[in-house]
Specification:
Strand content: 5-15%
Largest sheet: 6 strands, parallel
Strand order of the largest sheet: 2-1-3-4-5-10
Radius of gyration: 23 Å
Distance between the termini: 57 Å
Number of helices: 10
Helix content: 25-40%
Oligomer: single chain
Length: about 350
């Protein structure tokens, strides 16, 4: 990769190279507002800012820090809105502006990121509910600090060019699956698109590990792990159930959303939960009445929001520190859908 020079930064802003040099050498003679613009442009272009560079403190800035929250389909769940609200609360306490940026669910080869993410006006990006491979790679190509909440299982952490925050998934689903096996439910299926998100894939790994621990192998005939359309979950799960010659003893689902659809379809077929089939989910959503009795995994989304906000503030201040992968703990909630 070509090394970015001070002259290139100066040319992009229409200022002298000496002014840019003053910013990064710690000399006076540059206004606070221009200093912030130079730093932002340097980050955008991928300039190797010196490790010992002293970023101006927030109190010295006449131009506030702007951080984008780039999100797909935030309105689909209270889960996402709670996280965003908590991010906003932390930013407010730090005098940071939240730049709300919508992203599409998919992107064709001609798609470009919104200008607000590429024109140097934001100092960092928090990425939420974005699982499209092209979108994630476009975001990774930007040279400003980034923190991602989850990623596509097709885009590993080392390709994100940013920090990654995940909720613990593998161990919690392993516990639920082991619990079902201990109840004597030996034929257990899994439903969830494991190629969609890293967290989904880790939930499936936990499911498989519990079976391995019990000396069993996954019965792939009762597992639906292939891609599911955003708007066709119900139809695809319904078709899958109709294809089964015999129902399993239980289904472990990648999310409460999937589990709620599944329970509706099972009850429509006259099957009782948990008497005939046990069902578990993940997320502890509150919007669906069916989920009130669902064995699930509680995700502390307010803590996720706060951690995302604090992590991007840290990353902006320390852009050259090694990227981090952080897991926040979760909590299994056993309820009536598994006979508890």
């Amino acid at each position: 990769m070509k090394k970015v020079t001070l002259q290139e930064i100066a040319n992009s802003l229409g200022i002298s190279r000496t002014t840019v040099w003053k910013v990064f050498s710690g000399h006076e003679g540059v206004s606070d507002s221009l200093r912030i613009k130079v730093i932002a442009k340097a980050q955008e272009l991928g300039y190797a800012i010196p490790e010992d560079f002293q970023y101006p403190s927030q109190a010295e800035n006449t131009t506030p820090v702007n951080i984008a929250v780039a999100v797909c389909r935030p309105e689909t769940s209270l889960f996402w809105m709670t996280i965003i609200h908590q991010i906003a609360k932390v930013f407010s306490a730090h005098n940071v502006n939240l730049v709300y940026t919508y992203l599409p669910t998919s992107a064709d080869p001609s798609y470009l990121l919104p200008a607000s993410l590429t024109n140097g006006s934001v100092h960092g990006i928090i990425v939420l509910n974005v699982y499209n491979e092209r979108l994630l790679h476009l975001l990774a190509e930007t040279q400003i600090p980034k923190v991602f909440l989850d990623t596509s299982s097709l885009v590993p952490p080392d390709e994100l060019n940013g920090d990654l925050l995940l909720m613990e998934s593998r161990t919690s689903v392993r516990r639920i699956t082991s619990h079902l096996l201990e109840q004597g439910r030996t034929r257990i299926g899994f439903i969830g698109d494991i190629g969609y998100a890293q967290s989904n894939h880790e939930r499936y790994e936990g499911f498989c590990q519990a079976l391995t621990d019990a000396g069993k192998k996954p019965d792939f005939s009762v597992c639906l792990t292939t891609p599911l359309g955003i708007d066709t979950y119900r139809e695809e799960i319904d078709t899958f159930l109709s294809s089964l010659s015999r129902m399993p003893d239980a289904f472990v689902c990648a999310s409460d959303y999937v589990a709620s659809i599944l329970m509706q379809l099972l009850e429509k077929r006259g099957l009782r939960i948990p008497d005939d089939i046990a069902v578990s989910g993940f997320d502890n959503i509150t919007e669906d009445l069916l989920a009130e009795d669902l064995t699930t995994v509680q995700v502390f989304n307010e803590d996720l929001g706060a951690r995302l906000a604090l992590q991007i503030l840290y990353r902006i201040k320390h852009p050259h520190k090694p990227h981090e992968i952080t897991y926040l703990s979760t909590n299994v909630l056993y309820r009536g859908s598994t006979g508890d």
